[in-house]
Structure formats: structure tokens, C-alpha cells
Specification:
The complex is a heterodimer of chains A (about 70) and B (about 290).
Chain A: H1 2-9, H2 29-43, H3 50-54, H4 58-68
Chain B: E1 5-11, H1 17-25, H2 27-30, E2 37-43, E3 61-66, H3 75-84, E4 89-93, E5 98-100, H4 104-112, E6 118-121, E7 124-127, H5 132-135, H6 142-151, E8 165-167, E9 183-186, H7 187-193, H8 208-217, E10 223-228, E11 232-234, H9 245-263, E12 275-278, E13 284-285
Parallel strand pairs in B: 1-2, 1-4, 2-3, 6-10, 7-11, 10-12
Antiparallel strand pairs in B: 4-9, 5-11, 6-9, 7-8, 12-13
The chains are: A mainly alpha (about 70), B alpha/beta (about 290).
Chain lengths: ~70, ~290
């Protein structure tokens, strides 16, 4: 996710903090939904994009996702 | 006389919306000569196709074509329109439910003269107090919209559309841009692109419009030019990406998956600022 977000935003991954909110870096809601689609396609998992809004950082999302989301 | 600009407008079940769109593109509204602008409406198999006779009062050079191989995606219809266009500069309306502000066509013609390989992106707005995927869930509908347009006495002063609409780009006119619903390219660049990609065969074309913008901006030597002070304004008509939050999210998510499969890379918004051309002031920022 860090590499993906940094690629979208043109950021150096070394400067990215997984605990910061997505919007701190300028990732907007369209890009969050696109990221959900990319994750579904790439990893064959089910991703509810609302999880990104409820858990709006990499750390928070990973914690939420691994705790309860069904994986196909 | 060859027109200066061709406008390709795609229609599908837009009996209410298309007449307003075409009025907004007509020479009198756009303040251009009738022979300077050609409008090509391609209907994508509506149950009740647009009526050419009803458009006679526009005093515009309008052709109405039927898509010979209609599909749920508008892509074939767009490419048919591109094939029929005569002008050196061609603007594509993937969604015929989008009205234009009164200086949009002249602004795009002027912007096309700023660079040899211009990709001219106009900005998207949606009529109503919020983007329609939200406002429709709060009761916004066609009747509300009709009243809103009446409240500004449209088409008396088309720039008042800005007063009753919401921009789609959250980061301002130079912010990240997913798509432009009136995208203008010289004929040569449309040919280089091969038009719209027919692999996007889903209803509405999925993310074919973002794909086209990304590919156009990526053409060698191309220069993105954003038009400020003008815009297109979406009328609500039950479109997939504007009717509800759920359907809008689904379109983008499924589109992201389709894009990844077709292109082998993630869909990205256009974040480059490009040049801007302000139609009201004539200012160009490079």
C-alpha cells in the first residue's frame, strides 16, 4: 500500500508514515476507491472502500482489514 | 467551408437533457458563426432517438447519426462521431447530458492555438447543491433541477450555471483530474490515439474517459491545457456514476479493476497541472 500510494502521489516512500492519514498526503476519495479496486484485482480479496474512510491510514486500514474482512 | 471545430455528442435516452445540451452548443449561445462549428450527435440506440426536426430552431450545423453497432458502452458511438468529424479540432462529449458555458467552444479554439499538440481539458461541474451522487440521495431530482435552471432564467446568462452547480474536482481547477467530459484534441492527436478504446465495453464505458485523458496527456510532446472560466454542467439523468454513492463507488472500483487488467498498471488521475487558459481574461499560465 505504501508503494502504491507513493507511486500515485509521486512521493519518496522513505518520507511516508503509515500512521498518517491518507489526506495528509493529498490522496483523495477517488484515489482511495481506485486503490480498493486495484487491491481486489491484484490480490483477489474483497475490499470495502468505506473501510478506507473509517480507517484512514495504512496502519489503521491494515488493522481493520486483517481483523475482520472476508478474504476470498 | 470546413468548420473550425467539430463537437461529437453521445446520446442515450436523453430526451429531456439533450435539447438543453445542444442549445448550449448552438452558435448563438456560443457566440460563434454557424458554419464555424459542426455538431455531430451519435445516438447509441435510444428507444426514442433524437428528433432532427426539433433542432431546426437552433440554427446550428447539427447531424444526428445512429450508432450502427450499438452496445452498452458509448465507445463505438464516439468513434463513429470522430470518423464523421470534419474540423481540425474535435471535442468529445461522452455524455450528452452535459450543458456548456457560453464561451467554452471559443475558449477551446483559442487554447488550441497555444501549442502544436494541445490536449484541452474542460472542467466538469454537476448541477445542484452537491455532486449528484450525494444530492440525489438527499432528494435532488429532475424536477428540482428544472426549477434550479428556471431560477437563473437559463439560458439567458449561461455563466450563471456556475451559481447553481458543484465542481467535480475537489482540489480546485488545477487539482487532480479523473476525466474531462468535453475533451478537445486536434484531429491528428485523435488519430494517434486511435480514438476511444473499444475494449471498454461495459455499460457507460467504465473508465474509458479517464483512460482517454491519460493516454492523450501521455502522447509524445502533448501539452495539457486546462480551460478556466468555462465548464460543462451535468444534468441528472440516472447515469451510473451520478445517481447514488453506492453506484458511483462501484463504477470507479470496477473501472479500476478493468483498467488494471487492460493496461497492466493502476488507473491514476491526471495530477499534472499543465497550462491554464482563462477564457474570461485571456491569461495563459504555462
Amino acid at each position: 500500500m505504501v508503494n502504491y500510494i507513493c507511486g500515485v502521489l509521486g512521493l519518496d516512500a522513505a518520507t511516508f508514515s503509515a500512521s498518517d492519514r491518507f489526506d495528509v498526503y493529498g490522496l483523495d476519495s477517488v484515489e482511495v476507491v481506485i486503490m480498493a479496486g486495484v487491491m481486489e484485482e491484484e490480490f483477489q480479496v474483497v475490499v470495502d472502500p468505506n473501510q478506507f474512510f473509517d480507517a484512514p491510514s495504512v496502519d489503521e486500514f491494515v488493522a481493520t482489514f486483517t481483523s475482520g474482512t472476508a478474504v476470498s | 467551408m470546413t468548420p473550425l471545430v467539430s463537437l461529437v455528442v453521445i446520446s442515450y435516452e436523453m430526451k429531456r437533457e439533450l435539447p438543453r445540451t445542444l442549445l448550449s452548443l448552438s452558435p448563438r449561445y456560443q457566440n460563434c458563426a454557424a458554419d464555424e462549428c459542426e455538431i455531430i450527435v451519435v445516438d447509441n440506440n435510444s428507444r426514442e432517438p433524437p428528433d432532427a426536426a426539433a433542432l431546426a430552431g437552433l440554427n446550428a450545423n447539427v447531424q444526428i447519426l445512429a450508432c450502427s453497432k450499438p452496445s452498452p458502452s458509448p465507445v463505438r458511438a464516439i468513434n463513429k462521431g470522430l470518423a464523421h468529424a470534419h474540423a481540425r479540432l474535435i471535442g468529445v462529449w461522452i455524455d450528452g447530458a452535459r450543458m456548456a458555458s457560453p464561451g467554452l467552444v471559443n475558449a477551446c479554439v483559442a487554447a488550441s492555438r497555444l501549442h502544436a499538440r494541445p490536449v484541452i481539458a474542460t472542467l466538469n461541474y454537476q448541477l445542484g447543491p452537491n455532486v449528484q451522487r450525494i444530492s440525489c440521495e438527499q432528494g435532488y431530482d429532475q424536477a428540482t433541477e428544472d426549477a434550479l435552471l428556471a431560477s437563473i432564467e437559463w439560458p439567458k446568462d449561461g455563466y450563471r450555471l456556475f451559481e447553481i452547480s458543484t465542481p467535480e474536482i475537489k482540489g480546485g481547477p488545477t487539482g487532480a483530474m479523473l476525466e474531462s467530459n468535453a475533451l478537445f484534441l486536434p484531429r491528428a492527436l485523435w488519430d494517434e490515439l486511435g480514438g476511444y478504446d473499444e475494449q471498454f465495453s461495459e455499460p457507460g464505458g467504465s473508465v474509458v474517459n479517464p483512460d482517454t485523458l491519460v493516454r492523450a496527456v501521455g502522447l509524445p510532446g502533448a501539452q495539457l491545457i486546462r480551460i478556466l472560466g468555462e465548464g460543462t454542467f451535468h444534468q441528472v439523468h440516472g447515469g451510473l456514476s451520478t445517481s447514488s454513492q453506492k453506484s458511483a463507488i462501484n463504477v470507479v472500483m470496477e473501472g479500476a479493476r478493468t483498467y488494471l487488467r487492460l493496461r497492466g498498471k493502476p488507473l491514476m488521475q491526471v495530477r499534472q497541472r499543465g497550462w491554464t487558459y482563462n477564457s474570461r481574461t485571456g491569461e495563459v499560465v504555462r
